[in-house]
Design brief:
homodimer, 109 residues, alpha+beta, Arc Repressor Mutant, subunit A, 3-stranded antiparallel β-sheet, 5 helices, 54% helix, elongated, DNA-binding
Chain lengths: 109, 109
DNA sequence: TCTTTTTATCGTAATATTACAATATAATGG
DNA sequence: CCATTATATTGTAATATTACGATAAAAAGA
């Protein structure tokens, strides 16, 4: 089949899965890291840094944008990308809550 | 092409991506939630709860196991699954550090 | 041993993802 | 307007993922 049965899961489960999927690629993690380390918006320098074709990076940026993790503003000829603080914070809290919800049980195998 | 260029990324980037990918599906999030909420190992009840075929769930469990997020112990006829506390904690810390590394920059678009 | 129960694996179809070349688009500078 | 620069989109090939039916495997009980 190949298509996820979205309808049988909760809104929250689907939302979290979509966000995680957007982050779940080394190139996209690398992109996020670069934006974060630059501590400003990144305009164009991404293609030289990563060893991927321009089209591929554009595609990855699009996915990050679709997930709401980054935002791009047109700055003359180039586009400047930065983290979308609201979504970033939201996902951080959501994930943190998820990880914290696990308490090592007393009676387990 | 269809295959990720793992070799051009760092060890850390690849590791994090693999873990996130393992979590990045609503069914696998649902499975993790169930194990966590049960607060003990889950033996078999997963198929009835989720609306997916037994083979599909077994496949998802395998991926979570491969990523080291859960562990399964054979308990008579059935297999009991629980969170792998070490990996869980590791991923939690890793992700938390990643999210915290972002500081909203002063000069941005 | 035979049956039952539970989980894993195999085979397969449908769809998604990843990557890149080629090309399009959009803004700037001459 | 034309060339340049930066990014997006399109088309396409290779591979991965998702899902399920069918079947295998493994342990328990009759």
């Amino acid at each position: 089949m190949g298509l996820t049965k979205t309808e049988i899961f909760t809104e929250g489960q689907n939302r979290l899965a979509v966000m995680l999927k957007a982050m779940a690629h080394p190139a996209r993690i690398a992109i996020l890291e670069q934006i974060i380390n630059a501590n400003t918006c990144i305009c164009g320098d991404l293609v030289e840094e990563l060893g991927l074709a321009q089209a591929t990076i554009s595609q990855h940026l699009k996915e990050l944008k679709n997930a709401g993790l980054i935002q791009g503003t047109i700055e003359g000829v180039s586009v400047c990308y930065c983290i979308e603080p609201k979504t970033w914070e939201l996902l951080h809290k959501n994930l943190d809550g998820f990880f914290r919800s696990y308490k090592e049980p007393a009676n387990c195998c």
